[in-house]
Amino acid sequence: MKRREFLKIAGFTVFGSTFINPVSYINSKSITRSTSKMKLRFYPYTLELKHVFTVATASRRTTPVMMTEIEYEGVVGYGEASMPPYLGESHQTAADFLSKVDLSQFDDPFKTEEILAYIDSIAPGNPAAKASVDIALHDLIGKLIGQPWYKLYGLAPEKTPYTSFTIGIDKPDVVRQKVKEAEKFKILKVKLGLDNDKEMIETIRSVTDKPLRCDVNQGWKDKEYALRMIEWLATKNVELIEQPMPKEWIDEHAWLKERSPLPIIGDEAVQRLKDIRKAHGVYHGVNIKLMKCTGMREAYKSIILARAFDMKVMIGCMTETSCAISAAAHLSPLVDWADLDGAELISNDLFDGVKIIDGKVTLNNRPGIGIIKKQ
Ligand code: MG
């Protein structure tokens, strides 16, 4: 009996939309979608943050993630979707999206371009859910070949950058405590954009002279004010400014870019590959994150395109387990700045993976994205 016929008799629909009601997934540990060769599984998980995390737009203590696994001939690749609430994805939207994924039509996991074009075509949006499939597929491929991705990209592991560690907006005594806890990091990223920006900087400067990167998260609403603030920050050993004003303010950012003594980096304004071209002439550089651009494949293309426009590149993250952080880390030898502290901010990581050693992103020789699931 052919496998497809067997599954039909057994009550499964291989090519149908789904065989498990996505609404019921949350109470189940995991869902398995059978395919002829590749199997996609996914299950929800909630990251616990070590500290309440406050940026200009929100404050929270947990982050919902969806973990994925693609199994092929007994080998399992791991992936992850991290979904901070303000970006619009959730356990439910990711489950709905992943329930539509049917990998049975592909007989070869190495047809990455074809498979990921299909994933992207299933529905608009859902970049983190898409990234969770992309990461699992990359991990699987690396394991099938028996090589880590930095080697497949042709990159030198010692070229990984130092990562910044993020200090959220908080009261001075809490900020001082966080700076102390971040001792192993050589660079700090400071969240700005509320009404205590100068207090945040002065507080940090009272305990350390480490280089700072400032992320305003669209918090400044006046270009002249933004320029005055940047001129002041330039005297405080600040390296760059991320997304100072609302992402829709294209002319204002171009104006600021011409005058700013520090590089201006687009983050919220730059989501997918097509946004890189739009950022040219508006920002000095772009912050590329797997959860915005649907994963490693488009992130790689985005970095190459940004370089073609002579732009600076940062690789960033959300709060994530070592799964998604490790995936991004394999691309980090290509960039100017890394902001890959996401797994350092959580207390319930599921994986052992790429490490931050003395502040430096440190790759390992394991195949795929270099992770092992903790027991
Ligand atoms: Mg940012």
Strand and helix map with partners:
Blueprint: H1 3-9, E1 31-33, E2 38-54, E3 59-72, E4 75-82, H2 91-99, H3 112-121, H4 127-145, H5 149-152, E5 164-167, H6 172-181, E6 187-191, H7 197-205, E7 212-215, H8 223-233, E8 238-242, H9 250-259, E9 264-266, H10 274-279, E10 285-289, H11 290-293, H12 296-308, E11 312-316, H13 322-329, E12 337-338, E13 351-352, E14 355-357, E15 360-362, E16 372-373
Parallel strand pairs: 5-6, 6-7, 7-8, 8-9, 9-10, 10-11, 11-12
Antiparallel strand pairs: 1-2, 2-3, 3-4, 13-16, 14-15
The protein binds magnesium ion (MG).
Domain module count: 2
Hetero compounds: magnesium ion
- How many helices? The count is 13
| Share in helix | 25-40%
Order of helices and strands: HEEEEHHHHEHEHEHEHEHEHHEHEEEEE
- CATH architecture verdict of the largest domain: Alpha-Beta Barrel
Keywords:
16 strands, 8-stranded parallel β-sheet, 13 helices, 2 domains, Enolase-like, domain 1, TIM Barrel, alpha/beta, binds magnesium ion, disordered N terminus, 375 residues
Structure report:
The protein has 375 residues and is of the alpha/beta class. It has 2 domains: 3-146, Enolase-like, domain 1 (2-Layer Sandwich), CATH 3.30.390; 151-373, Enolase-like C-terminal domain (TIM Barrel), CATH 3.20.20. It is built from 13 helices and 16 strands. It has helices spanning 3-9, 91-99, 112-121, 127-145, 149-152, 172-181, 197-205, 223-233, 250-259, 274-279, 290-293, 296-308, 322-329; strands at 31-33, 38-54, 59-72, 75-82, 164-167, 187-191, 212-215, 238-242, 264-266, 285-289, 312-316, 337-338, 351-352, 355-357, 360-362, 372-373. The strands form 4 sheets. An 8-stranded parallel β-sheet has the order 5-6-7-8-9-10-11-12. A 4-stranded antiparallel β-sheet has the order 1-2-3-4. Strands 13-16 form a two-stranded antiparallel ribbon. Helix 2 (91-99) crosses helix 4 (127-145), helix 6 (172-181) packs across helix 7 (197-205) and helix 8 (223-233) packs parallel to helix 9 (250-259). The structure holds magnesium ion.
